[in-house]
Specification:
By secondary structure, the protein is an alpha+beta fold. It is built from 3 helices and 7 strands; from the N terminus they run βααββββββα. Strand 4 and strand 5 form a beta hairpin.
Amino acid sequence: MFVFESKVKVRYVETDQMGVVHHSNYAQYYEVARTECFEACSGMTYETMEAEGVMLPILEMQSKFLKPALYNQTLTIKSIVKEKPSIKLTVDYEIYNEANELINIGKTVLVFVNKSTRRPCQPPPNFMENVRQYFI
């Protein structure tokens, strides 16, 4: 298992008139956290993986809203990879406010795809070598 924490500060543009983060922004929060997590556990960026001919689009996304995130709060996003990646990579998320209250839980499922054929494929070998240590 691999767990990584990211921080995101809520910007005014992400909120509604009540100062509450609009639900559509959670997909972006997941993306920020997932990108940082991906690089921390694999040593690769999306850019380097794409240069090797592999893309990682989202297949599925879930989000459950427990409490509102508010303007100007710094949120902590835990990205949790519980299972060793295969053709799919599943990332769970927990978002906490500044009072360390759990305010959102989410999940994304991504698929490794060959850039040329756009068909599912195995992750790059160097990616798997780098993440293997977390799934023994």
